[in-house]
Design a protein that fits this description.
Helix content: 40-55%
Strand order of the largest sheet: 12-11-8-15-14-13
Structural class: alpha/beta
Largest sheet: 6 strands, mixed
Radius of gyration: 56 Å
Shape: elongated
């Protein structure tokens, strides 16, 4: 270390000394810190006191040495806590193996570990011990832990140890320790003590903020001095208390305006602030007072009487407790007795009565006000709900109740609004169903009227003489028969769609081979396709063993309808292709034709009942307008969907998927 430059001027350092033989070097270390301009406070462990006396360190540092974790400073602060808050660095030199272990594990059993745990300033640790102890894994682990805490470790040096052996455990050169402390606080601003950290202090009687008469009108009875408790008629247990504490309590109570009575252990009145000293010997023994006698048989003894000493009425209260003075008359018991002026008691009682009265009035007013507020808060929304319900009852379904709270009333309002919305939806649905029913009945009437009127016309013509005309009679009968057949198909489709929509048509699901099924259906339409010069083909991309899950008979109706439409609405010389594809573990069935196609505006409506793109051609080929509606319902019942792709002039394809 170079010549002192007072690098620590204005700095405050806490020097911690543990119980090592190297503790004697701490004196020189303290002087070196002072030469650098530091103000040093010393903390010691109890074992360190055995190596070096605190008096030397107090003389040099001009501060008390803290070696007891319970010691207090003159201002009421705990010594090691005050050091932790006031200093700018803590230097522990020498640090024993025991102290390193305690600090590494957070055991605040001495002033130094407690101060280190309570501070946030840099900590410098200089270990000193036997070389084998320092090299031990436990010590090295503790040193490593302290480094993790951010502590600066000034490693010991090799040399002759206190045991006479040579090893690596000798306290580092003091210059190194001082330099380490300077480096630790370098760049930090000088820390000023904060008066706010000091504990509150009770002001003196003549200071502002102190009520010198806060015990005025009170009577404090204090027992003081030694006590004697009998073990048997001969032996006893006692103490040699001087009564100093009791006298101090009396003086403090007197200074604050109280009447104070000091009673010795045997019941003798030693002092009374309201009784001159020369009259004390005339006061009777307090152990014989009525309230004390009353406390012998009750938990608390009381008595109201006029004090002959001060000439005023007092309430006296006494309570028995175990630590008693030896007195046969008192059955070896001790008592606590207090008293209060009756005038003060009456004033206090009257004050309490008025407070209770005013509290009752205020409470009653609050209850009435809260009751009115709550009742209005409850009744107002309930009235609004009732008015809204009445309007709803009269048919105003647009009326909604305003919801302003989230309580039970809000829940009722919300329920009424939801009921109105559901009612409106139901009415809309009913109107929709009624409109659909009217449209359905109109469509059915129209579809039935045409074949019936046509059939009626042919029959009337035959009855009017055409039956005898060989040139027309057979033609009319064939046309009448065709219209009767169309009427029969229409009625069957009406029955089917009615059963489907009402849920009366039951499905019978089972697995079956799709290849065999499609071959049979396609073969059924080969003759019709030939008659219309249509090429009807079947293309199976799925294996012959693939099975699908569905109602075989209902699916036959679906495919029959789709193939029949593909043939009827195809062009002459066209083609109908029935094919299958595997898709996402399911089988897609496709019926495609090369007909005129369907315009895009019709695609979304072709599954509606009685909807026709070309009404004249539909009736000409025998369509009822219900086929695709029936197809959609049956496919939907299989958990699938009919998909349509069409291009005008090129053709149309219908497809749906079945589970495998």
């Amino acid at each position: 270390m170079t010549e002192s430059t007072e690098r620590l001027r204005g700095r405050r350092i806490a020097l911690g000394i543990t119980g090592s033989i190297a503790a004697y070097k701490a004196v020189e270390l303290l002087r070196m810190f002072q030469k650098e301009g530091a103000d040093v406070r010393v903390l010691m462990t109890t074992s360190a006191v055995e190596f070096i006396g605190p008096l030397t360190l107090e003389t040099l540092s001009r501060h008390p040495v803290d070696s007891d974790v319970l010691s207090l400073q003159g201002d009421g602060r705990i010594g090691h806590i005050a050091a932790a808050h006031d200093v700018e660095a803590v230097v522990v030199a020498p640090a024993t193996a025991h102290w390193l272990g305690a600090m590494a594990n957070g055991l605040a059993g001495d002033t130094i570990t407690a101060a280190c745990m309570a501070t946030s300033v840099p900590v410098v640790v200089a270990p000193a011990m036997d070389g084998g102890m320092y090299a031990h894994p436990a010590t090295q682990a503790n040193v490593a832990r302290l480094r993790e805490f951010g502590y600066r470790i000034v490693d010991p040096e090799p040399g002759v140890l206190a045991s006479g052996m040579i090893g690596h455990g000798r306290l580092a050169a003091l210059e190194r320790i001082v330099d380490a402390a300077i480096d630790a606080i370098a760049g930090r601003s000088i820390r000023k003590p904060d008066p706010a950290d000091r504990p509150p202090r009770l002001p003196d009687a003549d200071e502002p903020g102190r009520d010198a008469d806060d015990l005025a009108g009170r009577h404090v009875v204090v027992t003081a001095g030694g006590t004697v408790e009998a073990i048997d008629p001969v032996r006893f247990i006692g103490n040699r208390s001087t009564g100093t504490m009791g006298v101090a309590v009396c003086e403090a109570a007197r200074d604050r305006g109280a009447r104070v009575t000091l009673v010795a252990a045997d019941g003798t009145v030693v002092a009374d602030s309201d009784v001159p000293f020369e009259r004390l010997s005339t006061l009777e023994n307090h152990l014989l007072r009525p309230e004390v006698q009353d406390a012998l048989s009750k938990p608390i003894g009381t008595n109201v009487r006029r004090s002959a000493t001060v000439g005023r009425d007092f309430l006296y209260v006494a309570k028995q407790y175990r630590d008693s003075v030896p007195s046969p008359a008192m059955n070896n018991v001790r008592f606590i007795r207090v008293s209060a002026h009756m005038e003060d008691m009456k004033e206090n009682v009257n004050d309490i009565r008025w407070k209770i009265l005013w509290a009752g009035v205020i409470t009653l007013t609050l209850i009435i006000g809260v009751s009115i507020f709550v009742s209005q808060r409850i009744s107002r929304p309930m009235v609004a709900i009732a008015e809204s319900v009445e309007k709803i009852r009269l048919g105003d379904l647009e009326k909604h109740i305003e919801i302003t709270t989230d309580d039970e009333i809000g829940h009722v309002a919300r329920a009424v609004n939801e009921l109105v919305d559901k009612l409106k939806a139901d009415i809309v649905e009913l109107k929709k169903l009624q409109r659909a029913r009217s449209e359905f009945l109109g469509n059915v009437s129209h579809e039935l009227r045409t074949p019936i009127f046509t059939l009626q016309g042919y029959l009337e013509t035959l009855l009017n003489g055409a039956v005898d005309d060989p040139a027309v009679n057979r033609l009319f009968i064939e046309k009448a028969s065709a219209h009767a057949a169309r009427l029969n198909v229409l009625l069957n489709d009406l029955i089917d769609i009615s059963r489907i929509e009402s849920g009366e048509m039951k499905m019978s699901f089972r697995y079956f081979r799709i290849s065999e099924f499609l071959e049979l259906v396609v073969n059924d339409f080969q003759q019709a396709a030939i008659q219309r010069r249509i090429a009807l083909r079947l293309s199976m991309e799925t294996g012959a063993e693939i099975e699908v899950f569905g109602d075989k008979e209902r699916l036959r109706g679906v495919l029959s309808n789709l193939i029949d439409n593909a043939i009827k609405y195809n062009r002459e010389g066209g083609e109908v292709l029935v094919s299958t594809e595997l898709e996402e573990g399911k089988v897609r069935i496709i019926v495609a034709d090369t007909g005129a196609g369907i315009a895009e505006e019709h695609l979304t409506r072709i599954f509606e009942r009685f909807y026709r793109i070309d009404k004249d051609r539909s009736r000409e080929v025998g369509g009822t307008g219900l086929g695709l509606a029936i197809v959609k319902h049956i496919v939907d019942a299989h958990g699938s969907k009919v998909e349509v792709r069409s291009e005008v002039g090129k053709g149309t394809s219908f497809s749906f998927m079945l589970k495998t």
